[in-house]
Amino acid sequence: MRKICLICLFSCISFMFLCGQNKKLAISGLRVSNENRNLNYKRARNVMAVISQLLLYYHYRGNKIDDEVSEKAFNKFIKILDFNKNIFLKEDIEKLSKFEQEIDTEFKNGFSRLSKVSLNIKQTRNLEVQAIYKKLLSVPLDLKKEITLISDFDLLEFPVDNLERVKRWQNLLHQFFISTYVGMLVEKENKLIKKESTDKDQKKATEKKINYLALKIKPLDKELEKKAREKILKGLNMRFKRIADGGELDHFNLYINAVCSIFGPHTAYHMPTEKEDIDIDLTGQLEGIGAQLQEDGDTLKVVKIIPGSASSRQKELKEDDLIIKVAQGNGEPVDLTGMGIREAVRLIRGKKGTEVRLTVKKPSGLIKVIPIIRDVVILENSYARSMVVEDKQSGKKIGYLLLPGFYWKKENSDLGRSSSEDIKRELLALKKQNVDGIVFDLRNNGGGSLSDVVNMVGHFIPKGPVVQVRSPSNRKKPRNILSDLVGGVIYAGPLVVMINKVSASASEIFAAAIQDYGRGVILGSGRSSFGKGTVQTFFGLQRGTNEKDVNIGALRITIQKFYRINGQTTQFNGVVPDVVMPTQYMELETGEKYKDNALKSDIYLPTSYEKYAPSGSFEVVIKSSQARVDKSEYFSNVLGYAKFLKQRRGMKKTKVSYNQQLEDLDLLQKKAEELKKISKEKRTLIVTPIVSQKGNEAVKESLKETFKKMEIGLKEDLYFHEAINLIDEISNKLLKK
Length: 737
Fold this sequence. Notes:
The structure is a single chain. The chain is an alpha+beta fold. The chain has three domains: about 65-260, no CATH class; about 285-380, Pdz3 Domain, CATH 2.30.42.10; about 380-535 and about 565-630 and about 685-735, 2-enoyl-CoA Hydratase, Chain A, domain 1, CATH 3.90.226.10. α14 (about 505-515) links the parallel β19 and β20 (about 520-525). The longest helix has about 40 residues, at about 220-260. The protein is globular, with a radius of gyration of 27 Å. The model is unreliable at about 1-35 (pLDDT under 50).
């Protein structure tokens, strides 16, 4: 069985939206899909058979699907179907529980009765629930009503009957209503503040804040009340329509992934279109028209035209256009009204050189058909960027290097670029500017290509091991040491690597190697990085079936763990930075250790390697930096705010009322203002972008905008300012000895 792509590392962080307007963004590109939402049983049988074999023989754990896995998968599947426990009744769960230990048998036989029976129940209950919320939202809701909701759904049982389910929906809709109504009221108040301002006092008006507590005595705005109910109704209708449109196929995929998730948070089945989306993330390129889209009610709005793309060159599609229909060349147009953004984007995406015809509604009301020939779309913001930052305070010239992800160039394809090659180019450009040190920003970098991170570490060390990769003990070669064998340092000066709680996988390999070699200082926003120390690969499922010519999706599977060269693992624990800087969200449960079924942390054999600098070389500057952070009034307040958020998040029950919502907003505003007052002072920095990559004029103009935003951000970024302080101390205290 052959793998369909290179080994890759990345972090998967999932977000759940219960209701309301979820503004999703998507880039139109790649393959058109006319996927039928009905389940092909023969194909489903093949998928189940191949997945069970792959999990047994290739997954790091090497477990088979047995009764224990069945029980866990059943509970996970029910949680996926009805997380809030407000759709199914207790009798439904009792009916389904007979399948609790039969999932292993179902995979063996290649047919899931659990998936089929649960779908029938879900479809019936969804129709009942739609009738419930539509009736409840058809009459005015009580703004002054106070309720207490259980925040931890694990403490709830499923409703015993419809009467109890109706009560749950009454409470849930009240929560939605309070949140939506207050949001609309705040928006209205903000517009009034803006309207009342004159040109003279515009600045004063901008700084004016809403008095949330004063809104308590404001009488009910009947028009807003009605609009709030309509908005909630629209959101719920769209949600349930998409569930219905997903049909048997989507339901089956949920079932399969419930089973896969028991093997770990990064093992999952991906339909063909989902796999394409992952490829886009890893390469930073796609094939399509180059328009960024956003849901706007029942239609899709163009929010950005990607510079240099097919849409940009064609010049007719503009921001704020609404896309109504899509046709493939001279084919029949497909109406997009009410279609989800993912389904719509599948129609708009397509291979380079093919034509798509978009029927759009202009802001003026004009309806127009726009033909566009698809082409390669380059997402410049996915790629490495660098700037020279002159700091007036220290007199130092700093090279700032930003890497959003460890992207890669696909084999035998025009798509993609190598992140290690791009970083090499940026380093050479910064060296020409005679910078005193480099700050390498890996904050929010979720990982990517394993080979690229190994090569990238090689730019900073003479040569040597970078990371250990461990396979299950039954493999011929369970231990593999990946090294930089090229030799030669691209950049040898002072180095600070910035990470945060979302820096994961390949980012952690890089930071850990730099730390273990003593090559630089790791500056962390938070106590540790994400903690993902596993390796995944993709297997094309059709290769294990008799459907060789049909793309039936791929299995992303955890095949290895990686270890630092000192034998420690980043799995669970992440990389603990040399200097810890508090963040507002550092106390919240984010990271691998909080994910279900994640592999545990352990210790492996250390490798032989020569330190770049003697142990303890950075001890003086690290202590000095940490002392500055600990004494900072701003970071003390940030830590206090983080504890405040943790306390709020940890509450098992939530009080929901109009007054409580306003009091919460008032408290959050005051806390934010306290932080803002302390952090108001900007550092005097002169920032010069480095444009080392060639591109057309449209791309260059877009990059100017990007660099301008980066410049503004760096001037206000107190975490980056501490990185400058570190570079200053390293060059003054260490290099001049």
